[in-house]
Amino acid sequence: MDNQITFLDGLNKEQSKAVDHYEGPLLVVAGAGSGKTRALTHRIAHLISEYKVEPSEILAVTFTNKAAREMKDRLEILLAQKLAKIEFGQPFSTLKISIQSELRTRIYREVIKEIWIGTFHALFARLLRFDIEKYVDKEGLKWTRHFSIYDEKDALSLIKEIVTEDLQLDPKRFEPKKIRWAISNAKNKGILPDILEESAEGLRSRLTAKAYRVYRKALAANNALDFDDLLLLPVQLLQQSKETRDYWHKRFKHLLVDEYQDTNWTQYELIKLLVTNGEPPSSFKAWEGRSVFVVGDADQSIYSFRAADFRILMGFEQDFGANSKGNYDSNVVKLEENYRSTSNILEAANSLISNNKERIDKVLKATRSSGDLIKLTRCDDEIAEAEAVVHRIRLIDAANNNLNWSDVAILYRTNAQSRVIEESLVRWNIPYIVVGSLRFYDRREVKDILAYLKLLINPSDSVSLLRVLNVPKRGIGKTTIQKFTDAASQLGVTVWDIVTDPEAIRSLGGRSSKGLLEFREIIQELQSHLNSSGPAEIIRLALEKSGYIKELISIATDEAEERRRNLEELVNAALQYQEENEAGDLEGFLATAALASDADNKDSSLNRVTLMTLHSSKGLEFPIVCLVGMEQGLFPSYRSLDDPASLEEERRLCYVGLTRAKEKLCLFHANERRLWGGMREPAVSSIFLSEIPSELIEGDIPLSGGTVLRRDNRLERLTRVDRGSPSDVSKKSHDAPSNAVRRYSSGPAPGKKWSIGDVVIHSRFGRGEITHVFGSGEKISIAIKFIGMSPKILDPRLAPIKPIDEL
Ligand SMILES: Nc1ncnc2c1ncn2[C@@H]1O[C@H](COP(=O)(O)OP(=O)(O)OP(=O)(O)O)[C@@H](O)[C@H]1O
Ligand SMILES: [Mg+2]
């Protein structure tokens, strides 16, 4: 066994202790970058290989689908490395590529596929496919295993209909979005309509409770669940049936949860019910061959707005009972070394978070050297900030011959901040990806086809049915549709029942009836393929038989072409799903599509800069992190300014942001910013900047939080920050802005002398005056104030400018 790999290799003593823990509860609490996720992943491999746990007996919860995929990949490699040693007696990396991939495939087939790894939603959607028919509802509502999953948009459209049609309310006064939010909130706390009705005071809350009741009934009538139900129903099911609990207790012997600090009430109940009968086990014997292992960091709890509560983390020891020796404290492992960030970055983060009052102090020591100082850049406004970010990235790029764009992340507090940054990146030809923009599965054409597919499996799903009944157009008018929905609700049947009723169709006569017959035939024909074809084939058939593709081809615009390509991509997604899941059926694919979030799509194999919100960055790491918009009212957010608890949550979010960086951390803020489409307002630097020790920062002088910046010498500040050495940057001609490169030849001679006060014409910005000149020769850059614009720092050898006297 000597030459074999153990999965304790590459871990420190405390991590090894956590990984090697076998039975009973274990909590790992530790700061950012201390190897919690690494320990969790190694633990899975270790349980399988050392403790001979069956892969199918393991359930691991990750925060995103992407994290789940990464965990599977990591496990595949770890286990393949071990197999290489056993079978060939040599390291995996020295084997031929074909053998490497054969080993990985085998590990995937025999092990990885069997482990349940995923988000709470994905895992419990899967559990419901087994057991939903056992659920007994107080109100007698029922679902079958062919249920549809409604995403936020579907749920909202159903609520809109309920507000206006069923309750006859004015959607302006009773906003569907707010009602949706209130219902979701109730569900996340395990509250059903009857309890909400009892506690409702005042007209508004009574109507919300009523909407909740009707909504739930409508979901059941459609045989559909929303995201919250995917967690709430399993909680209720496991609460009500000991038999079901026993089954799953036997099935999953080892539970592992990453990012435990962000679990909410329902998620917490689920974990409890999957390992106990709701109470801490009275004797340690109950744990025989079983464990629950959670890792988290209360300082990174950033989802209280989604009802997450980090006190759940703090209650772990009490919730899951004493260990074999009868005490609680040895159920906790603390990791105190950070392996991710340079010590300057770590010290900045530690110092920042120490300003929070509600926390348990903990140690987080650096293992790495001090590294660079943190770069702070103060800019004139958000546009200058975007330019400064790109400039900073280009400087780093110029200094590192081999910078991969994917090493860089630009993080911000709100999605709206990405637009100006994107514009700058486009100008400089830097490839990027925005995480959190429109989800692929939210595109209209993709949703249309998914609606067809949902309908095939679950004809009761009238939201999907009404979506595609007349898409593409089949001459079925609004009145017909209204007639059908009215009849369905009067008769207490589904819209599909009416659509397939020959008499109902005949009664319509004319064009509508022809269209309906056609629609029915399409659906029935597609249904006949369900047993014999995989998801990709069914999608292809649906695209063809529905006439959808034909219509897109006939439209022949760029937009239609793009939509057609998206549908091709949908087929690819289904193919990929089939490859990854051997028995991959259409229901499984639809669940994956419903639960995919855009944050999951970040493909690290693509060489692009990542733009994302601070929230989406949780758990990730990047060599270079740029954090923009460090201003009061933006970050920390406006709402948190007069609420100490929210301010602490914002600070935790800042802690998450800072600790994503491995090598370089660059912070940015602006003197003025246009927010929410309003006027540019003077900005005040973030209090968080003042909480980072000034000796760790270079660039601007850190300000005490709350200082209003003076506007007079702002250009001086902007330029000081951006000085760098632009000439280094320009050596890489491929990443200079495309228009600048094109105009280079028509620009001024490289040796031209520039002076303060010169007036120039820029091909896009117009007339401007030079206010500063930095460096000379190869290292020259100039600041120009264009009329009506913030000052710009340009490389005169590249920029499309001409002195006015040359014109
Ligand atoms: N014992 C170790 N030796 C060397 N590197 C390690 C060790 N443990 C973890 N690392 C590395 O440190 C980095 C951070 O690890 P990991 O992501 O597991 O931390 P984490 O505690 O989960 O962080 P976060 O709180 O941000 O989720 C990773 O690159 C990981 O590979
Ligand atoms: Mg982690």
TrEMBL record:
Residues in UvrD-like helicase ATP-binding domain copies: 9-342
UniProt GO molecular function: 3'-5' DNA helicase activity; ATP binding; ATP hydrolysis activity; DNA binding
Chain coiled-coil ranges: 553-580
Enzyme Commission number: 5.6.2.4
The reaction(s) this protein catalyses: Couples ATP hydrolysis with the unwinding of duplex DNA by translocating in the 3'-5' direction; ATP + H2O = ADP + phosphate + H(+)
Pfam family, one: UvrD_C
Superkingdom as given in the UniProt entry: Bacteria
UniProt keywords, alphabetically: ATP-binding, Coiled coil, DNA-binding, Helicase, Hydrolase, Isomerase, Nucleotide-binding
Annotated stretches, region: Disordered: 721-750
PROSITE patterns: UVRD_HELICASE_ATP_BIND, UVRD_HELICASE_CTER
Binding residues annotated for ATP, in chain numbering: A30, G31, A32, G33, S34, G35, K36, T37
InterPro entries assigned to the protein according to its UniProt record, in alphabetical order: DExx_box_DNA_helicase_dom_sf, DNA_helicase_UvrD-like_C, DNA_helicase_UvrD/REP, P-loop_NTPase, UvrD-like_ATP-bd
UvrD-like helicase C-terminal domain: residues covered: 343-619
Name of the protein in question: DNA 3'-5' helicase
Organism, scientific name: Prochlorococcus marinus (strain SARG / CCMP1375 / SS120)
